[in-house]
Design a protein that fits this description.
single chain; 735 residues; binds fe (iii) ion; binds zinc ion; Nucleotidyltransferase, domain 5; seven-stranded mixed β-sheet; 21% strand; Alpha-Beta Plaits
Length: 735
C-alpha cells in the first residue's frame, strides 16, 4: 500500500468546541498516524496512511465537524512521509505565532450535561458548573489565547484525579474541556445576604426565597441577573419600583419549550433559536389572555429564554419560570462580581445574591432576537454571539477601531476583511460604561493581537468619542454600511432607507428618516430624500414629554389641542418661536412619538421608544381592512422632501370623526410603508437596504416586506448585526 502524509489546517471557531477529540476519533476510524494540535492560528493536523483513507478523513472533517465549530478555512497539502505508523497524538497547545483563531462564544448546556446533572448516580448530580467540550463558558472566562485552562478564570481550580482523567482521555466528552470541573474540585455556589449568615444549601435557599417573593441577584455566564417570581404581582411591582421601570418589559426564563408554548406562539425558527447553543431571549407573541400581562404591559410580545447554564436548569426545575433581567442600575453595566453585587444589596435593589467563585472575565448581557416571519433579527448581540467575527467581501485591507454610537453602544475592531463587533456596552452616559468600553477595547486588542491606528467614530460633536478618533462617520451612513457589509453589497448601487431616532447629520441637524444613495464608492453617500424638518421644543425633553412633538407637528394645522392646557401651549409656542433649545429634526422615531401623542395613546414616554412600542401594539390589535394615510413626497429638488403636514391633517380629521386609535395606528404604519415605496419607486436602485432603530418594530418590517415582495425589489434588512444603534460601530469600521 502506498502511503501519503498530509498537512491539514483548519481555522475559524475551532478551539474549545471539541475539534481535537473529533479529529482523534476520525484518525482512529481510518487507521491514520500523525498528530493534531491547537496553534494560535487554528488547528493543525498531520496524518499519514493510505491515499483513500487520508482522502476519506479529510472529507469527514469537511462534512462532519463538531456541531458547534465554525470552520472558515480548511486547507490540505501533501508533505513527505515520516513513517510514524501506529500512533496518533494530540499535542498540547502551542502559544506562539499570530493569533488568528477565533474564540468561541459561550455555549448553552448540552443535552448530555443536562442528563449528568439529573442523574442521581452521576458524580455531577445537581452540580451547577457541569460542562464539556460541547458546552459551557468560553468568551466570558478567557483572559488570552490560546484557549487553555491557565489563560482562563478556571486556572485557580486544580482538577481532581477523576476530572484530570477525563481531561486527558481523547475518547471522553470532557477531553480538553478547559472549564471541566466537578463538586470535588470545581467552583462552588454561595449566598450573599445582608445578615451574612452562612448558608449550607445555597440553591435550596434561593428557591425558597424566590417562592416567598424575594428578589435575587443570580450569577450567570456574563453577569448577574435579577430574578424573581413573575406570577407574584406584589414582587413584580416591587421590582418595577426599585429598577425604576414602570412599564418596560422584563425577560422571562422558562423551564422548557412546552412551558413556553403554553404562554406564547412559537414558530419552528423561534424554537430552533430558543434551543440553540446561543440561547438568546426571543421575543414571542403572547397567547391571548396569558398570565404575564404585567411583565410586558406595553406590547404583544414576551421576551423568553430557556435555561442555558446547569445552575439555571437546577433553579428552573424547581421554579418553572423566573423574571431574568440584567442586574444593574439604570445606565450602568451589568454586575459581574461580588463587590458590584454587594452595592445592589446595599441599595436594596436585591434582597440577596446567589454567587459563585468562578470569575467572569468579560461582561456579556443576554442577547435578544426576534423573527420577521422566518428571518432572525438580532436586537441585542451579546452572550452567545460575541466574539464571532463577520467576514465582509471586497473590503480593502486595514485595521480600524470604531467607537460606535452613544446609545446602545458597541465598538468594533476590523482586521482586514474581518469585523469583530463587541458585546452590548450600553448607554454612554455613566462613566462606568465608558470604563467598561475602554477595558473591553484593551482586551479585544490583546485577544486579537492588534492595535489599530485608525479610529472611527460618530460625527456627533457632542459625543465624547468624537475627540479620540481620526475618522468621523455620519450616523445614518454607518447604519447603511452595516447592512451593506452584512449582505456583501459593497460597490453595488444601493439605496439605504434609514428609519431612526436620532443621528447627527451633515447639515448639523438631527436626521432620522433618510434615504441615502451610494454607488461604487461606499465611503460616500448622497442624501436623496428625507422627512421635512420639524422643531423639537426642549430638545431631549421632547423625547420624554412627547406631547411637545405632537404640538410642534400640528401647530400649522387647525387643531384645538383640547387635551393640552393653555399655559403649556403658550410655553411651547414661545420655545419654538425663539428657537431656544429647539433643534430641527427629520427623525422618524420622533414622528412616531408625535403621532402616538396626537392620537392620544400616550403623552409621556418613560423609557426609550415607548411611544413607538405602544403604537405598534395598537396597530397590531387593529382587526379589519384599512388604507394608509396618503404619502406626500415633494420631488422638485434633491433631496426630495417627505411632507408630514397632510398626514397630520388626516389624523386630526380622523380624530374628529371617531376613527379608533387602533385603526389610526395602522394607517400611520401603512403611511410609512407607502412613503418608502414612493421614494424607492422614484430612485429605482439596484438594491434597497433597511436599517435604523425604528425597524425593531416588527409590525412595520412585516408590512414593508409584504409590500416589497409584491414589487419584486431586492432588499435587505440587518439580521445578524443589530438594526439599532448597536450596529453603528460595524458600519463605522468599514470606513
Ligand atoms: Zn456538555
Ligand atoms: Zn473534579
Ligand atoms: Fe441610529
Amino acid at each position: 500500500m502506498s502511503l501519503v502524509r498530509r498537512l491539514i489546517k483548519i481555522s475559524g471557531i475551532v478551539q474549545g468546541v471539541g475539534m481535537r477529540p473529533t479529529i482523534y476519533r476520525y484518525a482512529l476510524e481510518w487507521n491514520l498516524s500523525g498528530f493534531v494540535a491547537n496553534t494560535a492560528q487554528g488547528v493543525v493536523i498531520e496524518v499519514e496512511g493510505g491515499q483513500f483513507e487520508v482522502d476519506a478523513f479529510f472529507e469527514k472533517i469537511k462534512t462532519s465537524p463538531p456541531p458547534i465549530a465554525r470552520i472558515e478555512r480548511l486547507t490540505q497539502q501533501d508533505i513527505p512521509i515520516k513513517n510514524d505508523r501506529d500512533v496518533f497524538r494530540i499535542d498540547m497547545s502551542r502559544g506562539s505565532g499570530e493569533k488568528l483563531t477565533e474564540i468561541s462564544p459561550d455555549i448553552a448546556t448540552c443535552k448530555d450535561c443536562q442528563n449528568d446533572i439529573n442523574d442521581p448516580k452521576n458524580r455531577r448530580f445537581q452540580y451547577a458548573f457541569t460542562n464539556c467540550t460541547n458546552c459551557g463558558p468560553r468568551f466570558t472566562i478567557i483572559h488570552d489565547r490560546p484557549y487553555d485552562r491557565p489563560l482562563t478564570s478556571m486556572k485557580h481550580f486544580k482538577m481532581c484525579k477523576e476530572c484530570a482523567e477525563e481531561y486527558h482521555d481523547p475518547c471522553d466528552r470532557r477531553f480538553h474541556a478547559q472549564p471541566n470541573a466537578c463538586p470535588v474540585c470545581g467552583p462552588k455556589l454561595y449566598i450573599i445576604a445582608k445578615m451574612n449568615e452562612s448558608c449550607e444549601m445555597p440553591l435550596e435557599y434561593t428557591v425558597n426565597e424566590l417562592k416567598k417573593g424575594g428578589i435575587a441577584a443570580i450569577k450567570g455566564l456574563g453577569g448577574f441577573n435579577i430574578a424573581c417570581d413573575p406570577l407574584n404581582p406584589a414582587t413584580v411591582e416591587r421590582l418595577r419600583k426599585i429598577k425604576r421601570r414602570k412599564n418596560k418589559s422584563f425577560a422571562l426564563m422558562m423551564r422548557d419549550i412546552e412551558l413556553v408554548r403554553a404562554h406564547c406562539e412559537v414558530s419552528t425558527e423561534e424554537e430552533i433559536a430558543l434551543k440553540s447553543s446561543i440561547s438568546p431571549i426571543v421575543l414571542l407573541k403572547k397567547i391571548h389572555g396569558n398570565s404575564f400581562q404585567n411583565i410586558s404591559p406595553d406590547n404583544n410580545y414576551l421576551g423568553v429564554m430557556l435555561p442555558y447554564t446547569p445552575l439555571h436548569h437546577l433553579l428552573l426545575s424547581k421554579t418553572n419560570v423566573l423574571v431574568m433581567t440584567s442586574a444593574n442600575k439604570v445606565d450602568e453595566p451589568i454586575a459581574i462580581n461580588d463587590q458590584e453585587v454587594k452595592k445592589l444589596l446595599e441599595d436594596k435593589i436585591v434582597d440577596f445574591a446567589l454567587s459563585h467563585d468562578r470569575e467572569i472575565v468579560h461582561r456579556a448581557d443576554d442577547s435578544i432576537v426576534q423573527f420577521l416571519r422566518e428571518k432572525m433579527q438580532v436586537i441585542r448581540r451579546s452572550r452567545g454571539f460575541v466574539p464571532t467575527p463577520f467576514y465582509v467581501e471586497n473590503l480593502e485591507n486595514g485595521s480600524v477601531l470604531s467607537l460606535g454610537a452613544n446609545m446602545k453602544n458597541t465598538f468594533a475592531i476590523r482586521k482586514d476583511e474581518n469585523i469583530y463587533l463587541s458585546q452590548h456596552i450600553g448607554e454612554l452616559i455613566d462613566y462606568r460604561n465608558y470604563d467598561f468600553q475602554k477595558n473591553e477595547i484593551l482586551d479585544f486588542k490583546t485577544l486579537l493581537d492588534i492595535s489599530p491606528k485608525n479610529i472611527s467614530a460618530d460625527a456627533h460633536p457632542g459625543y465624547e468619542n468624537y475627540n479620540s478618533s481620526n475618522q468621523l462617520v455620519y450616523h445614518h451612513h454607518a447604519h447603511m454600511l452595516s447592512v451593506m457589509g452584512e449582505h456583501n453589497l459593497l460597490g453595488k448601487n444601493v439605496l439605504g432607507v434609514i428609519c431612526d431616532g436620532t443621528g447627527y447629520g451633515s447639515d448639523g441637524k438631527i436626521w432620522g428618516f433618510e434615504f441615502l444613495s451610494a454607488g461604487k464608492d461606499y465611503r460616500h453617500f448622497e442624501r436623496v430624500a428625507h422627512l421635512r424638518y420639524f422643531p423639537l421644543p426642549g430638545g431631549e425633553m421632547a423625547i420624554k414629554e412627547i406631547d411637545r412633538i405632537s404640538f410642534a407637528l400640528s401647530r400649522d394645522i387647525e387643531n384645538d389641542f383640547s387635551n393640552m392646557g393653555h399655559d403649556r401651549r403658550k410655553m411651547l409656542e414661545t420655545v419654538i418661536k425663539n428657537g431656544v433649545n429647539t433643534p430641527l429634526t427629520s427623525s422618524l422615531g420622533r414622528l412616531f412619538d408625535g403621532v402616538a401623542a396626537l392620537i392620544g395613546i400616550v403623552s409621556l414616554a418613560d423609557y426609550e421608544a415607548r411611544a413607538a412600542i405602544l403604537l405598534q401594539k395598537y396597530a397590531e390589535n387593529f382587526k379589519g381592512k384599512t388604507e394608509g394615510y396618503i404619502p406626500h413626497v415633494i420631488d422638485e429638488d434633491t433631496p426630495m422632501i417627505i411632507d408630514f403636514a397632510p398626514l397630520i391633517g388626516e389624523i386630526i380629521l380622523d380624530l374628529g370623526s371617531g376613527v379608533s386609535k387602533e385603526e389610526m395606528a395602522m394607517k400611520f404604519h401603512l403611511w410609512v410603508v407607502d412613503v418608502i415605496g414612493c421614494v424607492v419607486d422614484k430612485i429605482s436602485p439596484e438594491y434597497v437596504v433597511f436599517s435604523g432603530g425604528c425597524f425593531q418594530n416588527s409590525h412595520l418590517c412585516i408590512l414593508l416586506m409584504d409590500f416589497l415582495d409584491k414589487t419584486g425589489m431586492t432588499y435587505y434588512f440587518n439580521q445578524n448585526i443589530p438594526i439599532n444603534d448597536a450596529g453603528v460601530a460595524f458600519g463605522q469600521a468599514m470606513i
